[in-house]
Every structure is written in C-alpha cells, then in structure tokens.
Write a structure and sequence with these properties.
Layout: H1 17-33, E1 67-71, E2 74-79, E3 82-83, E4 105-106, H2 120-133, E5 139-144, H3 150-161, E6 162-167, E7 173-175, E8 179-182
Parallel strand pairs: 1-5, 5-8
Antiparallel strand pairs: 1-2, 2-3, 2-4, 6-7
Helix pairs in contact: 2-3
Amino acid sequence: MAGKGRRTAEEAPLDLVPIMNLVTILIPFLLMSAQFVTLAVIDSTLPAIGPPQEVQEEPDEPPLMLSIAVTDQGFTVLGDNGVVTGEAEEGAEGEEAEGDPEPTIPCAERPCTSAESYDYEELTRMLSLIKDEYPDDQNVILVPEGRIQYEVIVRTMDSTREDKTQKGEDDSSRELFPFVVIAGGAQ
C-alpha cells in the first residue's frame, strides 16, 4: 500500500513543431523588416595643422589659392589677389569695398532659402574659366558659413570637382579642382 500513493511520472516527448513553425515564420519577417545601412563617403582634404614647412624653392608662378566662400547670399570666389569677378578680366581683382564683398555668384532669391537657390552651373562655368588660366592648380578651399545646409556644401563640392558639360581627353567630364579642402571659421 505504500506504493499506491506515489505516482510515477511518464516522460512525455516534447512537441517542438509549434516552436519550429514560429521560428520559420519569424526569420523571414525579421529579415524583411531590417534596415540595412548604406554609407557614402565624400573625399575631402583636411587643412594642415602644424609648424610651417621649409620653403624649398619659389615656383615660377605663384599658386592661385582659390577659395569659395558659401554664404546665404551666394558664392564669393576668391583668388590670390582678392575677389574673382569673372567679368572683363578673367583674372583676380582686388576688393574695392570695405566689409563683406558682394557675392560673385548671387542666389536667385536672397537670402538663399534652399539648396536649389544657389547657381551651381554658373559656379562650374566660372571655375572652368579659372582652370583655363591655371591648368596646374588642383586645390580649392571651401569656406561655408556656419548656417549653410549640408546639401549645399556637397553640391558645391561636386560643382568644383568636374565640369560635366565639357569633355576631357578620354571622353569623360572635364576635371576642374579635384582636391577640396573644407575650412571653418566663417561666421
């Protein structure tokens, strides 16, 4: 009688089919809902910081030191002698007015409210004229104001690198100033 009170438990086999069905449905659902991150890299050069390097030899022609100031009024193209106007002379001219110069390439609406307000085609055309005069220069310094949108900076970089309207030697777009340095400090 002592054995009647005890029950022996039978080991029932585990039914894993419902769990396997759930995993089979869950895996494709999770793969479809996952977001895959795509990254894009924009090639840029950082300004050099450090002690000045020794000057080895004076070049025959001084470098252009081409800079483009991006403001909410438009683009101001600066060369070694000041503001480049792109008018009668295709060279650099000195600044005439005190304070901020008028933009070389003004926006369609001032102040520029969107990335479409800037005239990128005119900037590329002007840089193509400058490249004709200085074919060996490859650097351009971008000086954006602090409140300029990121899209404007990227589209300006694209406009300075190549002229898609003119064809180069190998039937590709003409290379203008491929090495873009982004400088800070404009207020």
